[in-house]
Structure formats: structure tokens, C-alpha cells
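Curious: can you check?
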Amino acid sequence: MCADRVTGDEVRAMVREGAKRRTSFAFCLDQYKDAVLMIQPGSKPESLRAPLKQEGGKPPMAWGTYIVQGDEMEMTCEQAPAQMLLQLKKFLKANRPKVNVLFFDDGGNLLDSLKPESSGDTPQSNADAEDISASGIDPKAVLPLKRRLKRIQPRIALAPGPLELKLKRALAKSVALINAGRLQEAETLILVTERSIAALGKDREDEETTLKRGQRESDQRSLGAQVKRAQGLQAHVARAPGPARDRLTQAVHKAARLLKQRDLNGAKDAMDKIEKALTSLV
């Protein structure tokens, strides 16, 4: 198996890997003082030194193995210079692994620990894109929103303190709205968050580009819903009596043409009329 670098937004995936089996890890900083963390199951921890160097890492380095049991991740450090242990703890804390991390030396002595965020933090305030479940909701409708949340999540950390907290809460609320099936409200809140990040200059997009992309994705989601509506109407029209069926079939075809032209309002009006006509036939 190849060694994998763990970035900040992949720490929870690292935890899930440790819940499956004991895994080797190695950690250091690069020339820019950025964290370089590598993991690899089924290998000796010191063999990760070469991949660390390939990623720009420099000595001193820490390495060992880790395993996750319940709500604790035990990291056994075969080599752990004090400054690297401190930096590793700082890196994990910044990326909220949602488990208590215990650091041991290779003799089983506890060196340090990292407790998860205080119980006073509600799941609502901690939620992020990985917490989207949205069971019973069309995945095709949820996926674009999840993709947008994943895109803006690391950029929120670049906002100044008070605004960062506010944007994190907005992200968590967006997740809650998606899980509740309130996709339109979630989309509006996501767009507000995207605009805030763009206005700060913390994104590669400017505010106008962000607005256009958000509107485009909103239109695509609405289009999908209207297409499903047209398909449902077509099934009902097929059961209508002869003369009415022919007339309504033509109306459904007209609505379909409007959808192809991305005229959502025109298609919606046409389908409203079809539904009204079907009701009068009952």
C-alpha cells in the first residue's frame, strides 16, 4: 500500500482508517512550517521518512503507529521530539478529529493528550460537510450543495476571528438544513457564506463570479425538479380520455421544449395549466 498524506480536512478520514486497523504515521514540518502528516497501514513507521521528504518535509520527524478504539485514538510514538509532538498536537487540534487523542511513548507511558472540543460545543456548532446524511433525500439534489460546502470549508479558517466563528456557524446550520430536507434555505445560506469569503478576498473567485455560479447551480437543481414534474404529468396524461389526452400530450411536449430552453418559469406555468386541466377531468 502506498503512503497517503493527510491534509487538514482529511483528519477524520484518518480516524476512520485507524478504527479499521493499526496504522503507521509520520509527521514533520516543511520549509514553510506547514504540517506534513503521512499514514500507511501495514508498514514500519520509519519507512515513511522517505515519503515525508518527497512531500517537502524536513527533520526533526516524529513517527509511530496509531489505532482508534471507541472515542479515543492512541498514538504510540516510537520517535517523538518534543517540538514535533507539540506541532502534531496543534495540527490535530486545529482540525477537530472528534476523538480524544492520547500520545504514548513506545514503553506505554502517556506523554500528552488532546481532548475533543468541550461538551459545551453542540453538534450543531461543530457540524461540517462530512456530517451531511440527508437520508431519504435525492442524492443528486444534495451533492451540489455538499460539494460547495467542502469547497468553502477550508477557506473559512482564513477569515478573521469573529467572522470565522460566524461563518462556521453558518456552515453548521447549512448542514442541519440539508439534513432536514430544506434545500432551498440551505442553498441561500451557502451563497451568503460564499459571498462573504469572496468579499474578503480569500477565494480565487470574485463576488460576481460566485453569484453567477451559485445561480447556475440553483437553476440546475430547479431544472431537475421540473423535469421530474413533467415526467409525472406525462404518466397522468397517458391515462386521460381520448380527445383530452391528445391535447394534454401536446401541452406536455411544449413544457418539455421550454425546459430544454431553460425557460423554467414558462415551463412551470405550462405545467400548472396541465395540472389544472387534469383536475377538471377527475
Q: What stands out?
A: Strands lie at 4-5, 23-30, 35-41, 57-69, 72-79, 100-105, 110-114. The longest helix spans residues 207-237. Residues 117-124 have pLDDT under 50 and may be disordered.
